[in-house]
Design goal:
The chain has helices at about 15-30, 35-45, 50, 55-75, 80-95, 100-115, 120-130, 135-165, 170-190, 205-220, 220-240, 245-250, 255-265, 265-275, 275-305, 315-335, 345-370, 375-400. It is mostly helical.
Length: about 400
């Protein structure tokens, strides 16, 4: 695939749009339990911290299965693997909806995280294959519109179900979306041009090949920096973000559906970045996006955590979404380029670190919530985000100054 700018119109627009729908469903599945936590705690007679294990289980499986799906996408074609993963996601969503008790719900969420693991990372890697680097950040930002809407809608749908419906209803809804998108992707894959269905044949055993590919990624110093940064980003952000709806409900007395709608503003902040990504990139560059994105995200989280009134969450969640995607999209771009010859494995490792970081952050957050409360937990996450963003922007500036950068 050439990096000639004239090649840009060649990638199929509809193919990217359908991947964005898949990203929507995957993100919806991830975040739907955030606002459901108080309802699940009451339904199964467990603490809020224990209920949060439904998030941790999903994130752990999501992170670990990246190590499997990255090389699998390189072997059989990334687009095809995403399509079949969506069909599998429909099945695991149904298992969540039909879970008879809390242990079975945890197990079903574990399976759901494992099947969803292929969707967004392999979609990003596929975009890295077909879109030249100089055009990739705006295209990736537009693709991530689906993920952004899914993240925000997940909290809204979960909150609405907690107040007005049964907690099982959202999972039936998610299953319908996944099976529909999966069938559309399978159809689209058959009409893709040959370069967009790239796969690599190999006689080497799958496990050995997988380990070799990840080793080729990890030997690169910059790749290790990006992976460690995104792990800490996932831990600090989602160790706070997962408890925002519960914080607004417990501390300020708002309903879970209202709390979910407030958290949904996080997605609208992300949409602002997605629609204006080209302008942001030109004005700030990667270094500025990482730095100021982290600053906006950190101070917004802190404001939400310590605010004396619920309405502070209105601007707080919106600006937090803008800041997050300024920072995270910059990390994603670095991930697509940190090992171009092993892009599937590289992006899989990136996503694995991000979601393993989330699981660690939510697990630690669950302990902090029980001991210190939601306000302090969210504030600690804000401080961590600020430190890692400033450090990454510093390291990126140093890397850019090197002759080989």
């Amino acid at each position: 695939m050439t990096s000639n700018p004239k090649a840009v119109p060649a990638y199929p627009f509809r193919a990217i749009l359908y991947l964005s729908f898949a990203a929507f469903a995957s993100a919806l599945s991830l975040r739907v339990t955030d606002a459901l936590l108080p309802r699940l705690a009451g339904e199964f007679d467990v603490s809020l911290g224990t209920a949060s294990y439904v998030i941790t289980a999903f994130s752990v499986a999501y992170g670990l299965f990246q190590l499997f799906f990255g090389p699998l996408g390189d072997r059989f074609g990334k687009y095809l693997v995403v399509a079949w993963a969506c069909i599998a996601c429909a099945v695991t969503a149904l298992l969540c909806a039909l879970a008879p008790n809390f242990p079975m719900l945890l197990f079903a969420r574990l399976l759901a995280g494992g099947t969803a693991a292929a969707v967004i990372p392999l979609s990003m890697a596929w975009l890295g294959d077909v879109v030249p680097y100089e055009h990739r950040q705006p295209v990736l930002a537009r693709f991530l519109t689906g993920q952004i809407l899914g993240l925000s809608s997940g909290v809204l749908v979960g909150g609405f179900a907690a107040d007005h419906l049964n907690w099982r209803v959202p999972f039936f809804f998610i299953a319908v979306i996944f099976v529909t998108v999966g069938l559309v992707l399978l159809s689209m894959n058959r009409s893709l041009p040959a370069y967009a269905r790239i796969s690599r044949k190999s006689d080497e055993p799958a496990i050995r090949r997988m380990l070799a590919e990840f080793r080729q990624v990890l030997v690169k110093p910059w790749a290790r920096i990006v992976l460690m940064t995104v792990f800490l980003e996932g831990a600090c952000l989602y160790g706070a973000f997962a408890f925002i709806a519960s914080h607004l409900h417990r501390v300020h007395g708002v309903s879970l559906s209202t709390a979910g709608s407030l958290v949904m503003l996080f997605g609208f902040g992300g949409l602002l970045y997605a629609t204006a990504a080209t302008t942001f990139v030109k004005k700030l560059g990667e270094i500025g996006l990482a730095k100021w994105g982290g600053v906006l995200l950190a101070f917004s989280l802190f404001a939400i955590g310590v605010a004396p009134a619920w309405w502070w969450a209105l601007p707080g969640c919106f600006v937090a979404g803008l800041g997050f995607y300024m920072l995270h999209n910059t990390l994603q771009i670095n991930a697509t380029q940190m090992a171009p010859e092993r892009r599937g494995a590289a992006v899989a490792a990136f996503a694995s670190c991000f979601y393993l970081g989330q699981s660690a952050g939510v697990g630690i957050g669950a302990i902090l919530v029980e001991k210190l409360g939601t306000s302090i937990t969210i504030s600690i996450g804000a401080a961590g985000v600020l430190l890692l963003a400033l450090n990454f922007s510093r390291l990126r500036r140093q890397a850019a100054s090197l002759p080989s950068a």
